[in-house]
Each structure stands twice: as C-alpha cells, then as structure tokens.
Amino acid sequence: MSNIIQFPGLIDCHVHFREPGYEHKGDMASESKAAMSGGVFTVCEMPNTNPPTTSKEAFEDKVRRAEKISDVDIRFFFGATEMEHLEAFKQVWGSPKCCGLKIFFDHSTGDQGANRETIEAAFKLCAELKAPLVAHCEDPKINAEAQHIVQDHIQGKTPDVSFHSLMRPCASEVAAITQAIDLMRQHGTQFHVAHLSTSQGLDLVRQAKKEGLPITCEVAPHHLFLSTADYATIGVLGKMNPPLRTPEEQKALWEGIADGTVDCIATDHAPHSLDEKQAENPLEAPSGVPGVETMLPLLLTVAAGHWPNPSGTINHQPSINHDDIVRLCFTNPNRSFVLGASDEPRITIDLDDEWVINGSDLHSKCGWTPYEGWKVRGSVTVL
C-alpha cells in the first residue's frame, strides 16, 4: 500500500512568471501550470517584467492578466527604482493582489537596482503603510569591484561560468543585509531578505531576530541543493543571482532551516530560454533558473533521508521533515505576506513514488532544469 500524505496548496513567495514582456521565457499560464504540478497554489510574482511593475497602470495590467488564471492565485510585488515609484506604490497598496514592495540594492535581471535615496525612502514608507518590504541584497560597489578584478584576471582567457560566484561575492550580500537591518531598525519596517545565500547573512538575520526586529528571510532550493562544486556538471545552468556558494555556505543554510532562522523556502523561479542560457560567453548568459515545479519533490526526498544531487557527496547531513515543509512553504509565507491562503488539504502526495526529473517533462515554458536526471521521491495529485 502506498504511503500517502496530504498538504495544503503550497506558497512560493518569490517567482518570476515573465509576463508581460518576456513571454518567450514563460507566461502566467505556462508557469502557473508548472506551479500547480509542483503542489504550489499561491505565488508572489516579482516586478522585473517589461514594463516593470513600478506604476499603477502596470500593476493593474498584471492583475487583469492574472484574472485569466483560475487554478493558481497570483499576487504581485510592486517595484521601485525611483522616488516617483513609491508614490505609485501608495496608490496600489491595499489591493488584495499586492503583497508588498520589492527593492533591488543592485541590478539583477531587469536592471531594477535602486539608488540610496529611494532605498531609504522605501523603508520609511513601508513602515508607515505597514507593508512588507522585500529586498534583493547585494552591494553594488562591492560587486563592481569584484567584477573589475575578475575581468582583469580573465583578460584574453576563455571565460568560465564559475567566475560568476567570484563576481558577486558573499561580502556583497552581507554588506547589503547590514545596511537593510540598519534601516529597518531606524524605521521599524517589516523586512524580508530574498534568496539569502550566505552564512554571515544568516547570522545577521539571527541576531536581528534576537533583538526582536520584524525580520524574515527565505532561501532558495538552488542554494540548498547546488553549490560551486556543481559548476563542473551543470555549467551555465547554475548561473543565478545571488550566485552559487561554496559547500560550507550551503551547509549553513540547512543549519538555518534546522534552528528556525530561515522562515521560508522560495524558489526565485526565473525561466530563460535554453538558447539564452547557452551564450558564447557564459558570464554574459542571463541569470536565473526555473524551480517552482521541483521544490516540493526535492524537499520530500531529503525528508525521506536521501540526498537527490547525484554529483558526489555532501559534507553534512541535511534534515527536514514534512511539518517543516508546510511551515516553510505555506504557514510562514502566508503569515508574512498576509495572503489568506486556505490550510485545507489541496494536494495528495505519494511518498513511495520515485521518479527522475527531466526538463522536457516539466511544465515551464523554458523546458530545462538545473536538476536534470536527479532521482526524487513524492508525486503530487491535486485534490
């Protein structure tokens, strides 16, 4: 007899569904299908589309587009790179489809890095509105200096995608999180660190929680299941921002899950076409990987006592259980972003079903995955 459990429909509080503007990578229909196939019923979509979600009109256009999607509840973060965008955010905050404000401390996909004045004003405004502020925490000055050093080093040589991790070093994330915590301490802002990837960043969050500050954080599956050791196997398919970290940093993230410092697991689902990823110069390939459909089976595999990454051994024994998965992928994001998702059972999971991840079998329009060929456990059926 099969080993069956039920979960509520999970929440992924960090996705990029690419619509409007980048529908060749993915759209609301294709990526929602991927989400639901992975047991995810609610998503929080990021603002770096084209046009970006930095105006009332762009926000309302996304809401209208999402009305065509019946199975997955799509909420939207508003973006701000300039002061005028904060004025627009005030107009849409209060809409049930708006889950908060997103700030980029440095440029990533979509080039939405904000200036210092806007960042500081965003923390002040979100405190006044009692709105969650989410940030991509990388320091632009540290990144620029690191990129200059790496570019000088590789001049005349064949670029290697592993240099991407050197060009966006751990110190960059740590500096930005430090700055963010100073601002939230000053204003009392409810603050959420997106895709946290470093042990020192995690320590900063841990200490801020001890101070009683209203801070939360998420980690992404690709930082939990991949490290710099995997570049040799997956190459440019492992390029994302923030980049892959060392196995030691990876271990620290799992420890942050175990001690409760990590509040959410969110995928930063970011599809690109395979042609785009396979750029002649790997350092010029777009950053981002799909993940919304594979998050749950990867976590269930660890819960079953197995490590799904076939490329070598891991230097520690990750641990997670089914209650942890619900807490990290439903309860905490539901509370942090006031999503009002139902905790009624929505999916049935056959824990004994073992299967192999193949990008061609997944539902994202991009058709590939960094977890190609991985053996996982747990198949999802929608109730």
Can you give a write-up of this model?
The protein is of the alpha/beta class and 383 residues long. It has one domain: Metal-dependent hydrolases (TIM Barrel). It has 14 helices and eleven strands. It has helices spanning 28-37, 56-66, 83-92, 116-129, 140-154, 163-167, 170-187, 199-210, 221-225, 231-234, 247-258, 274-277, 295-303, 322-336, and strands at residues 4-8, 10-15, 40-45, 73-79, 98-104, 133-136, 191-193, 215-219, 264-265, 345-356, 375-382. The strands form two sheets. An eight-stranded parallel β-sheet has the order 2-3-4-5-6-7-8-9. Helix 4 (116-129) packs across helix 7 (170-187) and helix 7 packs parallel to helix 8. It is globular and about 55 Å long. The two termini are 19 Å apart.
Brief summary of the model shown:
The radius of gyration is 19 Å and the shape is globular.
